[in-house]
Amino acid sequence: MSHAHEAGHDDHHHHGPVTLKDGFFPWIMRWVSTTNHKDLGTLYLIFSLTMLFIGGVMSLIIRAELTGPGIQFVDPDFYNQMITLHALVMIFGGVMPGFVGLANWMVPMMIGASDLALPRVNNWGFWILPFAFAMLLSTLFVNGGGPAAGWTMYPPLVLQSGDSLPLMIFAIHMMGISSITGAINVVVTILNMRAPGMTLLKMPLFVWTWLITAYLLIAAMPVLAGAVTMLLTDRYFGTTFFSATGGGDPVMFQHIFWFFGHPEVYIMILPAFGIVSTIIPTFARKPLFGYDSMVYATASIAFLSFIVWAHHMFTVGMPVAGELFFMFATMLIAVPTGVKVFNWVATMWRGAMTFETPMLFALGFVFLFSLGGFSGLMLAITPADFQYHDTYFVVAHFHYVLVPGAVFSIIAAIYYWIPKWTGVMYNEALGKFHFWWSAVWINVLFFPQHFLGLAGMPRRIPDYATQFTEFNVISSVGAFAFFIGQFVFIYNMIQCMRGAGQKATDRVWEGARGLEWTVASPAPYHTFETPPTIDPREITAVPEKHA
Amino acid sequence: MPEDKALRRRNLVTAAVLVAVALGFYVAIFISMSG
Questions:
Q1: Contact residues for A471 (Cβ-Cβ < 8 A; gap 6+)
Q2: Contact A226 B29 (CB under 8 A)
Q3: Inter-chain contact A188–B33, Cβ cutoff 8 Å?
Q4: pTM as predicted
Q5: pLDDT of residue A331 exceeding 70
């Protein structure tokens, strides 16, 4: 073994990655100690998909419970734990690490850098995560069960949690440290390590959206950390930050939480905008329409995300002037978002379009994310929000932006780039089946929830009045069908990772442009060790000449 | 690839600034709450 380990060590530095053929222990150690951005990208993506499945199983428990009025399968307190953990696992374990994995793989290759700027920090940032989530999920087995006050952790309710509270708070701190280190790595890499000629306004949109997302992370995650630290001291050290009896204010927690929480929403969607802005030009065989306006729209959305937080809490009671400000500021977000949707449609206008799986998921994103955006506009209207608040309408809204929004974009990105990662084409027929199956059932799952919410069904309850039964049953059928369909995706991806399939060309897609397509498929373990000379044809930020 | 010391220094300085910004936000929340 020591011989194999030595050989592996040598390989790591000079010839390529250690494989299973070099022995099991050296292979494990490669993944534990790797500082390679491609390895860590793979680890992040596998971790993300694992968490999406764990969170998915939790959602099935929720949907199974809601197949009928009354209590069906689980204890109400366990139901609350599922609601809370489903959100935490999906947001911090599924979507965010998914985007970080894509950034790890693609940002250095797209800007012509050899790796991320701080590779050892990158390793540390990833390996924090499995421990954070092991700790979070272990709370299901402690005294009092898992956290059950919702992922928003509002006091005073959350302070009545059992022993899960400190474990959840420590886990959230670790997730925050992981996110911040990842974000710092992305910013430093993009600012300092671009290849000569790759000026800021020539960067691919995915890199731009990730740069802005990273700034959001650096500003927002410490705020969450502060809020949960104060929960911890309120519970264990006698402070009264959020207790009125000691001069504190429980509503202040909501302000601080959503000052983090709203930028968090955009942390989970801006990289998706970048992915869609990369895929649509490829399959429309046209440069992205309005590149500069895309960059400015992304920056505008990021800025606005910090001044709209109180639209999550219109019903707590605030001055009318405050409600008006947060309502109009929220509606302003529709302007840069509209610019983006317009640009995507204009990119496709008169394009030579084909509809491979990544394009299908990108188009599904544009259509269904926009639906989620429209219901967001409805929720932004303060007087209407008094009706919608805490109903299933809100659940429908944010699931439309997060599942056919963020998750579809991650799936689209994996289909788009996996031939570059593995050197093998995925099975296109299975990919198309996966898209259509997902696109149908995701609407069966979430669309009826709009009707439930408008009819007055509250969120976060295991029981409901009998008139809500039909739409709940339809929604639950959609949930199970959607979940089953994802195994087709997993099978397809595993086949690529095993090398089973048609060999991919270096360019992979006829219309693809960018530095990542100039290297071999599969991408060599080390790329751009010397900065590349950029062929102007690979710059995706080409001004539109035919509009 | 030969180590580029100037780049390494620039990376560390940029990262240090960003760490300071993140810590600043963390501390600022406590300061705002103790007012």
A1: A448, A449, A451, A452
A2: yes
A3: no
A4: 0.94
A5: yes
